[in-house]
Amino acid sequence: MSVTELHRTDEDIRRAFRPLIEPRAIAVAGASARGVSAGNRFIRLLHETGFAGSVYPIHPTADTIEGLAAYPDLGVTPEPVDYAYLTVPAERVADVLGKAAGRLGFAQVMASTDPARQAAWEEELRSLAAQGGFRLLGPNCMGTHSPRGRFTFMEGASTEPGAVGIACQSGGLGMDILRRGQNLGLRFSGLVTIGNSIDLDPSDLLEFYLADPDTRVVGLYIEDVKDGQRFQKLLRRNHGRKPVVLLVGGITGLGRAAAASHTGAMGGSAQAWQALARQCGAVLTETLDGFLDMLQLCLWLTPRSAAATAGVTLFGNGGGASVLATDALDRAGFELAAPTTEARREFARIDLPPGASLANPIDLPASVLKQEDGRVTARILDINSRFIAPYATIVHLNLPVIMGYRHLPDFLPNLMDAVFGSGGAANRILVLRSDRSEEVDAWRRTIRAAAAERGVPSFDEIPQAVQALAAFRDFEATLCHQQDSRAGSPITDREARA
Amino acid sequence: MSARAGDISASGDGMDDAIARQLGAVAQFGDTALDEAAAKTLLAKLGIAVPRGIRLDTGESPVGRLDGLRPPFALKALSGAALHKSDIGAVRLGLQDAAEVAVAISGIAERVAESGSPLNGYLIEEIAAPGVEIVIGGTTDAQLGPMLMLGAGGVFAEILQDVSFRLCPIGRADAAQMLDELKIAPILRGARGRPAVDLQAIADALLALGGPEGFFTRYRTRVAEFDLNPLIARPDGLVAVDARIVLTEGQP
Q1: Is A2 on the interface with B (CB under 8 A)?
Q2: Kindly report the CA angle at A67 between A66 and A69, in degrees rounded to 5?
């Protein structure tokens, strides 16, 4: 049963995935009558997140599990099941799935088996799915997180619906993305761990998220893309319209067979994936934090036509940090935005103590920022938006110092209002610099959550922010190239129809 | 500047059949690669210029065969196996006439025999006029398929690592971007008072190899990797001075 046809409509694709994303009936195989196994935890989690559909524990002998009526197999549940979560050991999986024919939408299999038996076992599961008319996620995965369906596989995951759609070939990394991502302020339309991808593979999930109107940014962690040609076709057709951020594991050249040519020696997986990203308007990242940072930027910044030069305004209470930030900008190919004559004239109207200057980088001690109950920041940023209009503004706050003034009435709210901006503040980025003390880290979390609500990306340090901004600018450039190449070339027309 | 090697007049399907036959014939003999002469014949069919030259079988004399060519000549050993020719002294340059070529041939025969590589024959070519050396190559990524490479070429290509990659099939815009990504791009566009090289010829070659109807895109199941290193880029065109096309294993 194949979903590889590219002529299916978006609606067909959404309908095909509805049982996974918004199941009305979930079966759980692997919970026990007594225990605290993963299956039991999953059932309790369904209750906690307010899953509104039916839950059917599957167990050979028990009558009830977690207070719910249990059934001996998937063939005898009161109704067909949209989604089955299997934590049973590998040797039981075929038996459970064998009874599911015609009564199941999606099976997610957590188990894995030893390498000697893997090929045969996976082939058996694949054919059970094909014959039984259901789709299979895994094996060797951890579950699905779907706020729309009000269910998740991870304790502590927020089920607030969001716009980031993730597919991940590692369960552990999937949990990292959920945890670290939600602390960054990201919320997910879905996060599906697909493990060994013997049936549903990265292309299937990519296709779904591209067709899903609730998903505005797609993120994929890939170790084996499976159908590379189909993956490329999907990405090329998308042309970066919906941002796709890639994190690819196992991409470096270690262990590659000896090459027979210069090209073979130099052209490894890293080069292939970089080429893919440039040609298809996808964003390639190399680390978990880089991946999450690009999800932030793609979610909250709007790509614009690439300007020949990109000027950045730096603003904050940094001192040496501002100097280092300027170096980071230079290395990344940015310039410091130069204040225009009008900007200088407007800046001159602001009363500043001697020595404080509004030349870029704008570096003001907190004692100045707190002037006018923190409203001076709003004035400066407003002048920056209206008269300098840089490619991006990086607002960096040295939190321990700023928070020293938190008792001043209205200072913090005014400062944050000014920093978050009020519309038209293009490409504004917040850097919240902490000394890693518990107190300051806690303040940072609070401010970060508020920034996420206002759609302002936030970072821990300035060079990180600059790197992410540079990658975003590369992404904008590839979108521009695609605009050019799509204009009238018969070659690209043919590709588009392929 | 230089004519196309090979005497098959090519057009459309006839050319494709000829290329398919050529690949098939080589594979039948159990060679793992096209030798340089065969590779250049193929390139010429693709519209990529190669130096004028003739092919000699082992035991054939060059006397009387070089009248249509302009000295000085390059002499190269032909082999269907992996061969870093300059490393093992299987290339001789600057030969002025058939007599010098004949002497050089015996020297090469000895050195190639020492190296243990099989010898198919010899290629005697006109020496290309100097220009900017570039490399165009192809390799296959296990997950993403055939991939094209453009870069600064010559014997130090792998040391310089000034290269750009795109997955096949490429379009004309991809070809332009591959060029822009190179450190030597300003040199190709003309630097220090020198004129630009024929950039169109470079783009045409990239498309002939990696475009939607390109050689590597179409024959990727039969061709594992290829290197054209160097191609000499000049204001008046592009010529492939060396070519290596490696076949996939076990293909009929």
Answers
A1: no
A2: 105
Interface check for A359 against chain B (CB to CB < 8 A): the answer is: no
Give the chain A residue nearest B173 (alpha carbons): A485
Please work out, in degrees rounded to the nearest 5, the angle formed at the alpha carbon of residue A280 by the alpha carbons of A274 and A281. Answer: 85
Rg of chain B in Å (alpha carbons): 18
- Which chain B residue's Cα is nearest to A491? B171
Of B173, B207, B229, the CB nearest to A485: B173
CB burial readout B80-115, b (16+ within 10 A) else e: beebebeebebbbeebeebebbeebbeebbeebeeb
The model's pTM is 0.91
Of A260, A484, A495, the CB nearest to B224: A260
Q: Is the dihedral of CA A293, A295, A301, A303 positive or negative?
A: positive
The answer for A 242-271 residues in CB contact with B (under 8 A) is: 259-269, 271
Segment B120-129, tens digit of pLDDT: 899 999 999 9
Contacts of A55 (CB under 8 A, 6+ apart): A25, A26, A27, A28, A43, A46, A68
- The sheet carrying A283-285 orders its strands as A144-145, A188-193, A164-168, A217-222, A244-248, A283-285
Which pairing describes strands A311-316 and A362-363: parallel, antiparallel, or unpaired? parallel
Are A272 and B167 an interchain contact pair (Cβ–Cβ within 8 Å)? Answer: yes
Determine, for residues A492 and B147 on separate chains, whether the beta-carbon distance falls below 8 Å.
no
Q: Is the pLDDT of residue B1 over 50?
A: no
Tell me if B141 and A269 make a contact (CB, 8 A cut-off).
yes
* Side-chain-side CA neighbours of residue A124 (13 Å): 15
Put simply, whether B66 touches A (Cβ < 8 Å) is no
Q: Given a cut of 80, is residue A283 above it in pLDDT? A: yes
pLDDT of residue A357: 76
Element (H, E) at A93: helix A90-98
Distance from CA of B69 to the nearest CA of A (A): 30
Return d(Cα A480, Cα A82) in angstroms, integer.
Answer: 42
pLDDT at residue A483 is higher than 80: no
pLDDT in tens, A388-399: 989 999 999 999
What is the band of B11 on the pLDDT scale with cuts at 50, 70, 90? Answer: very low
Cβ neighbours of residue A190 under 8 Å, at least 6 residues apart? A21, A144, A145, A146, A147, A148, A165, A166, A209, A212, A215
Binning chain A into helix, strand and coil, the percentages to the nearest 5 are 45, 15, 40
Measure in Å the smallest separation between the Cα of B123 and chain A Cα atoms.
20
- pLDDT exceeds 70 at position B27: no
B193-220 pLDDT, tens digit per residue, is 999 999 999 999 999 999 999 999 999 9
Over 70: is that where the pLDDT of A219 sits?
A: yes
B-interface mutation test, from A197, A251, A261, most B Cβ less than 10 A away: A261
A463/A332 Cα distance (integer angstroms): 9
Q: Could you tell me whether strands A104-109 and A135-137 are parallel, antiparallel, or unpaired per DSSP bridges? A: parallel
- Is B146 an interface residue toward A (CB < 8 Å)? no
**What is the pLDDT confidence band of residue A272, given thresholds at 50, 70 and 90?**
very high
**Gap between the Cα atoms of B204 and B213, Å rounded:** 12
H or E element at residue A95: helix A90-98
Angle of helix A228-238 relative to helix A202-211, nearest 10 degrees, comes to 20
User: Percentage of residues in chain A with pLDDT exceeding 90?
Assistant: 74
Q: What would the mean pLDDT of A342-356 be, rounded to a whole number? A: 86
- Alpha-carbon Rg of chain A, whole angstroms? 26
Distance CA(B239)–CA(B198), nearest Å, equals 11
Chain B positions touching A220 (Cβ under 8 A) are none
Instruction: Summarize pLDDT for A186-214 with one digit per residue, the tens.
Output: 999 999 999 999 999 999 999 999 999 99
User: CB under 8 Å to B117, separation ≥6 — which residues?
Assistant: B77, B79, B81, B82, B83, B88
